[in-house]
Amino acid sequence: MKLYRYVLGVLALASCKPLPGTDGVAGESGKDGVAGESVLSATLAFGDPHCPYGGIQFTVGSTVTFACNGTPGIQGPPSALPWVDAGSSVVDAVGRIGSVTTTVLISNEQDISTNFTIPSNVQLMVLSTGTIRINPSATLTINGSFTASHTTVFTGSGAVIFAAGSVDAAFPEWWGADRNGVADSSGALQNCARTVQGTAAKMVLTSMFLIKTPIVVSRTLNIEGGGINTGLINETVAGDAALIVDGTGALFPYAYHSRFSNFTIRGNGISSGSGIKVANLAAYSVFDHIYSVGNNHGFWYSSPENMTDVGWGTGYGAMFIACIAKSNYGDGYLDNTTGNPNPYAQWIGCIAEGNQHGINWASDQVTVLGGAYESNMVNEMVFTRGASVMGAGFEESKPSYGDRPMLLLRGYGSTAQGNTFAVNDTEHIRGIQYEAALVSIESNVFHGRNPSASIGIYNNATIFGIPQANSGSRIRANVNNGFELTQSLGLEQNFDDTALALTPIANFSAIHTVGNITLGNPGSATNNSIAMGFCPSVNAANSSIFFDSSTGKPAFRASNGDIYDFSITKR
Q1: What is residue 67's predicted lDDT score, i.e. its pLDDT?
Q2: Torsion angle of alpha carbons 380, 383, 387, 391, nearest 10°?
Q3: How many helices (H) and strands (E) does the chain have?
Q4: Using CA of residue 540, residue 543, residue 548, residue 551, what is the dihedral sign?
Q5: If DSSP codes are grouped into helix, strand and coil, which group holds residue 558?
Q6: Which of 15, 71, 201, 502 has the highest count of CB atoms within 10 angstroms of its CB?
């Protein structure tokens, strides 16, 4: 036997669960009785669909009946109840509670016609049958904790304000978002974003929601999904975006330090807007495990046409972590700004595949660490200003790539180190092409199926529009396997390593190629070689051994600058 004890205020009730009944006296149905049946009872918790306020379920054979608790009263002393029902007016219910810490339950439609505040001592709990309609001119401020299921809670066009600590997360379903992704949920997502931006609470995406107009983030916001099958179905138009981050008009910290993580933005691959567009005053944004597919641009840092005098950049310090930009009909990651407004961007372990450009970035001092960049239509990466690319994998396996490079470096002081380039076609593909001075290309590996088809490293450096061989760059310890050695460093343009008597480049030293290896067939006389320190003697470092470009012979430059030749004897 079990005993259940219930307490309501000072009133205690008991419900006993009996032992199984005994059989009746044998005999026909009638006065002598029939076989007895056990009665089973089970306690129903608060919130049960049959007994919203709890109760007991009785089972006799296949018959189930319920004994439900009634609606809690609100006339007794507030301290007598752990919770009260809002009844017909949550405003009146809260008014009667006073300063007592209590939970108010909403199980029906409530109207907020004027500004109203739920105090911090009241926990507001909205059941699945409850809604709160807020009139257009009214604002509901919730200072206490707030709990609701993933159903529509807020209706009407009035505003909701969650005070600090009221909620850890808000859900678009509270404003009527369609979890099935059929109806347009743009308004619901915008209301959710507007409510929690600028607070410590995050906006949580639990399904794929259809949007037809952009969701605008104007203050710091954290949007978090539940994986690749949650996020946004993007039916915005080209030129717009599913999410637009623009802190223009907001107070400091504007939209700085916004974070977007663990969800998908999926377009139709033909006419959808971009996935995420960063417009202004959104520095240090973090994009973590975002999958942008079939959009215009996957991630777009746009022209600073709306720049204000309170910020010098639209989105400097962006960080992309394990993001994927795939099959967007524009670029995967695009910065098409002017004036260097978005420097210091970082890509860590990201992927770009099947876009026009994988990364196409106009701002300076950016870094790529690892990741895979494959089969983008124009270039895998293009950097207009200084960039460091380290440990990334590049691959091309499609025709019509022409002589375009996989990695195009146009900024002074750029670095490419420890990357791998693979070509699986016979097109004339270039691994790295650099078009600026003081570039460092070290420890990269180039693989290709057709040795005559592709160029590992191509020098297209210019200064004031004049091609330069002597750009002060350093090419060291790279390995070409199946790429054309004689076309490395752009020799087909007749660049040489002699100093040019042009004023603009008087302070640049020659290109130094050190320890670069090209692999061909074993014993080949033409396709196995090491180029080491090939430069004019005037550009060689003191106390170094080098190959003099004027004689083709090894030499030594002493610490005082004197040059000593080595003798070479034919075998």
Answers
A1: 85
A2: 0
A3: 2, 55
A4: positive
A5: coil
A6: 201
pLDDT of amino acid 458: 81
**Sheet of 563-565, strands arranged across:** 534-535, 544-548, 553-557, 563-565
Task: Answer for the pair 542, 557: CB distance below 8 angstroms, yes or no.
Answer: yes
Cβ contact 451:486 at 8 Å? no
Least confident piece of the model among 16-25, 171-180, 362-371:
16-25
Neighbours of 181 (CB within 10 A): 16
Q: What is the pLDDT of residues 327-372, one digit of tens each?
A: 999 999 999 988 888 999 999 999 999 999 999 999 999 999 999 9
* 430 Cβ neighbours under 8 A, 6+ residues apart: 403, 404, 405, 406, 454, 455, 456, 458
Range 284-298 burial, b when 16+ CB lie within 10 A, else e: bbbbbbbbbbbbbbb
| Cα torsion 228, 232, 235, 241: sign | negative
Place of tokens 């004197």: 562
Q: What are phi and psi of 199, to 5 degrees?
A: -120, 175
* Pairing status of strand 169-170 against strand 202-205: parallel
Sequence spans of domains, the chain: 2-68
For the four alpha carbons of 176, 177, 180 and 183, in that order, the dihedral sign comes to positive
Contacts of 525 (CB under 8 A, 6+ apart): none
**Residue 327: both structure tokens together:** 């099959």
Q: For 265-276, what is the mean pLDDT?
A: 97
CB 155 within 8 A of CB 131: yes
Q: What is the mean pLDDT of residues 57-74?
A: 78
Q: Give the per-residue pLDDT at 493.
A: 31
Low-confidence winner among 59-68, 231-240, 343-352 (lowest mean pLDDT): 59-68
The answer to whether residue 74 scores a pLDDT higher than 70 is no
**Of the candidates 546, 485, 486, the residue with the CA atom closest to the CA atom of residue 512:** 546
For strand 544-548 and strand 553-557, is the pairing parallel, antiparallel, or unpaired? antiparallel
Residue 529 or residue 524, greater confidence:
529
